[in-house]
Specification:
Elements lengths: L2 E5 L6 H13 L7 H6 L7 H8 L3 H4 L4 E8 L13 E8 L4 H13 L6 H8 L5 E3 L14 H9 L1 E12 L2 E10 L7 H12 L2 H10 L11 H10 L5 H8 L3 H15 L4 H10 L11 E3 L2 H4 L14
Parallel strand pairs: 1-3, 4-7
Antiparallel strand pairs: 2-3, 2-6, 4-5, 5-6
Helix pairs in contact: 10-12, 11-12
Length: about 300
């Protein structure tokens, strides 16, 4: 089932981002104390916090105010399908300015109307490798008229957007958008190069995000409640406390924990922790990474370049 979530980020530099990413990944579901439990009714860490938080130091580094993170998967390849079998499973809004777009995009996810969008289809045809897109303003490009790009640039009053697609495996991709609004200037080649550097450090966090959603290594997709339980089980709180935090009975909590273990293919809580720790050391898909330049500036419709060649 397609889902849409909303969260927020704080600006920071790339170095800060990569350090924070490591800390957040290792501290998922931090120890619960009586004092902290009295102040909240949810686990310290949740999917709605973990996914958008780790998704970028780049917004701060690139002076962007909002964006989104989407997870796309392909249960099975289908050459007859407009998107070759890919579907967006969940969308996280990042930053306050993204809320309106995420709520609207919820309708697109449920109706799957995005399947027939030519820009989305073009992105899917590049599947199997990391890539960065910096396309011209769709409101001024004839070949983008009537596309979802044009719709959301107008709705959100965007000045510019950078897109990053991280190919975690041939059948799982993470889609990021980084936006500038109002009178902000357009992104430069240097900004694209910065994003290119960020992309190189995404794999550990990206693998854990995919595991948290059941999208890694042929595992079964987790529901929103199961994702929350997974986060809680990765902490130190006893099951009774987790049940209280999630507003569940202890019996329902045990049942939900068993469902998580079964879907993720682990034997119990220790097995889940071991998988969480070891998943970052698993085999990387390691696809060829490419950057698609702004076609309006470069004049090439399908030109690409290898990352790392731009000078900072």
């Amino acid at each position: 089932m397609n889902e849409v979530e909303d969260s927020s980020w704080r600006p920071g530099t790339i170095a800060i981002l990569l350090r924070r990413q490591t800390r957040r990944s290792s501290s998922l579901g931090a120890r619960s104390t009586p004092a902290s439990r009295s102040r909240r009714r949810r686990p310290t860490q949740t999917p709605e916090r973990f996914a958008p938080q780790g998704s970028f130091a780049s917004p701060g580094a690139l002076d962007a105010s909002s964006g989104h993170l989407g997870i796309g998967s392909r249960p099975r390849a289908d050459e007859r399908d407009p998107l070759l079998g890919f579907r967006l499973d969940i969308m996280y809004g990042v930053g306050a300015a993204s809320s309106l777009g995420i709520v609207t995009f919820d309708e697109e996810l449920r109706a799957e109307s995005y399947v027939h969008d030519p820009v989305v289809q073009r992105v899917v045809r590049d599947a199997g490798r990391h890539r960065i897109y910096h396309d011209p303003d769709p409101r001024r490009a004839r070949d983008r008229a009537g596309t979802l790009d044009e719709k959301y640039w107008t709705l959100l009053d965007l000045t510019d957007r950078l897109k990053l697609v991280y190919a975690l495996s041939p059948d799982v991709e993470l889609h990021f958008a980084i936006d500038r609004h109002g009178r902000a200037p357009r992104f430069t080649k240097r900004d694209v190069a910065v994003l290119d550097l960020v992309m190189r450090g995404l794999d550990p966090w990206a693998r854990r995000v995919a595991l948290l959603h059941g999208d890694l290594g042929g595992r079964k997709r987790l529901s929103a409640r199961e994702r929350a339980m997974t986060c809680a089980l990765l902490g130190h709180a006893p099951l009774k406390t987790i049940a209280d935090d999630l507003g569940l009975s202890e019996a329902r909590s045990r049942e939900l924990a068993r469902d998580v273990y079964k879907k993720l293919g682990v034997s119990g809580r220790i097995g889940l922790a071991n998988t969480w720790s070891s998943v970052v050391e698993g085999e990387s898909h390691d696809p060829v990474a490419t950057t698609r330049p702004n076609r309006a500036r470069r004049g090439a419709r399908d030109g690409t370049r290898a990352p790392g060649r731009a000078r900072l």
